[in-house]
UniProtKB/TrEMBL annotation:
Annotated EC: 2.6.1.-
Transmembrane segments: none
SUPFAM superfamilies named in the record: PLP-dependent transferases
Name of the protein described by the UniProt record: Putative aminotransferase
One Gene Ontology CC term in the entry: cytosol
The keyword Transferase appears for this protein: yes
Keyword annotations from UniProtKB, A to Z: Aminotransferase, Pyridoxal phosphate, Transferase
């Protein structure tokens, strides 16, 4: 029995994997994939296969794998002080430095950062802070949160509810009643094919207005959205969408949470996606790219407007009753400091912008004419290809045909390139580390062309 077989058996017998078909995996019908080492944009498994990771883990290893600057900082921090908490004004050099580095990079209206461990808990924090905010302001009914269908905001109780994907609700008794959903800004999937982009934006705005009307603005606290829809299909918004949505929210005194777990710290070629699209959030969620996933760390960046009310709340009620043991964990904070510094030093955000544009352009040149390619879209170092059965009538495949998963499997088996079959629809997504070179982008595109040919002809 090879080491891998041994591990596969242990894995099947003991390991409860997230986002996995549990029964198939336990029966050994899906393989155990053991990843051993990684460098740059490549990961290597136990069998010595070198795979080009064009999804940067789960779009999180932004700086690329094997960065000694970050691993050294982690080792040094672990040796010096592996842990101390951040309750009642405690901190460490790393956590205080990182908070300053985040605020130095954040939009001007931002005031403070609360640290968590992952994107889900950061969004849970955001919802609690917003409920607290409205209670302090004497608006006890203003509590509902609007999210978009196909949005992804985590898989906790409230955050799984915010996530607008059926799989995350079905059989879990979600969404909770405080969460309501509105139309996704997904032009390619619009119902009315005759709509122009600007007509479709007007339609999204009208949908939001009518939801607010139905529920009552006095009952709605906030709207949450990713600047570019991520897990829901990698969908950049149509021109003018964010400005129009922001205007509606302002009119009804509804806060705006920008979930920048994927877009924060450079994935669109700019520091934050909200700046990229010219809107101003009241709270920004950050995670993945904050440490490039070298250690788990997230944050809720709160604006002056929110912060002032939170301060007032503690003057009236005592210390804020919200805290995690590992908030601002020093090892994670040290990873964050080293990561943000490395991203600056190597100019990686500019690279994400320029090589990302090159990747998107090359993908379009190579595949736009294929009869089963319905849409190629992206922004910065994000790119997606969506497949259709028939382009003229925009007929989609049945889910059972599994075209997206088949294309992604062909990419892996033929050319050892990892792309993600997005969970809803026949879409393959690319979100490589920011250090991707143009040659590596060429390799990703050539592998995609070959995979599409294998699956669809
Ligand atoms: N928000 C967004 C936009 C995300 O993409 C994700 C994770 N993919 C989350 C929140 C949840 O983050 P986590 O998995 O770290 O809890």
């Amino acid at each position: 029995m090879s080491t891998n077989d041994f591990l596969a058996e242990w894995d099947r017998d003991n390991f409860f994997h997230p986002s996995t078909h549990l029964a198939q995996h336990a029966r050994g019908e899906t393989p155990t994939k053991v990843i051993k080492t990684a460098s740059g944009v490549y990961i290597e498994d136990r069998d010595g296969n070198r795979l080009l990771d064009a999804f940067a883990g789960l779009y999180c290893v932004n700086a690329g794998y094997g960065r000694k600057e970050i691993t050294d900082a982690i080792a040094q921090q672990a040796g010096e002080l592996a842990y101390y908490h951040s309750y009642v004004g405690h901190g460490t050099e790393a956590s205080i430095t990182l908070a300053k580095m985040i605020l130095d990079r954040a939009p001007a209206n931002m005031s403070k950062v609360y640290f968590g461990l992952g994107g889900s808990d950061a969004n849970e924090t955001n919802v609690k802070l917003i409920w607290y905010y409205n209670n302090i302001l004497g608006r006890p009914t203003k509590k509902k949160i609007i999210s978009r269908w196909r949005g992804y905001h985590g898989s906790g109780l409230v955050t799984g509810s915010l996530t607008g994907l059926e799989l995350f609700h079905k059989k879990f008794d979600l969404p909770v009643e405080q969460v309501i959903h509105t139309e996704a800004p997904y032009y390619f999937r619009r119902e009315n094919l005759d709509q122009s982009e600007s007509e479709f934006v007007a339609h999204c705005v009208a949908e939001l207005e009518s939801l607010i009307e139905r529920e009552g603005a006095d009952n709605i606290a906030a709207f949450i959205g990713e600047p570019v829809l991520g897990t829901g299909g990698i969908v950049p918004p149509p021109e003018g969408y964010w400005a129009a949505i922001q205007a509606v929210l302002k009119k009804h005194d509804i806060l705006l949470i920008a979930d920048e777990v994927v877009t924060g710290f450079g994935r669109l070629g700019t520091m934050f996606g909200s700046e990229h699209y010219g809107f101003e959030a009241d709270i920004i969620t950050i995670a993945k790219g904050l440490t490039s996933a070298y250690a788990p760390l997230s944050g809720s960046i709160v604006s002056d407007k929110v912060w002032k009310v939170l301060e007032q709340g503690t003057d009236e009620n005592g210390p804020i009753g919200h805290g995690w043991t590992y908030s601002a964990h020093p090892i994670c904070a040290a990873a964050g400091v080293a990561n943000l510094k490395l991203i600056d030093d190597l100019n990686l955000i500019a690279n994400a912008g320029s090589v990302g544009a090159y990747l998107n352009q090359s993908m379009k040149s190579a595949l736009a004419d294929h009869p089963q390619v319905g849409d190629i879209r992206g922004e910065g170092m994000l790119c997606a290809v969506e497949f259709v059965k028939d382009r003229d009538s925009r007929t989609f495949y049945d889910a059972a045909d599994k075209i997206g998963p088949q294309v992604s499997a062909a990419l892996l088996s033929q050319d050892k390139v990892i792309a993600r079959a997005m969970p809803q629809g026949d879409i393959i997504g690319f979100a490589p580390p920011f250090c991707l070179s143009e040659q590596e982008a060429d390799k990703v595109v050539a592998a995609t062309v070959r995979a599409v040919k294998t699956v669809l002809g």
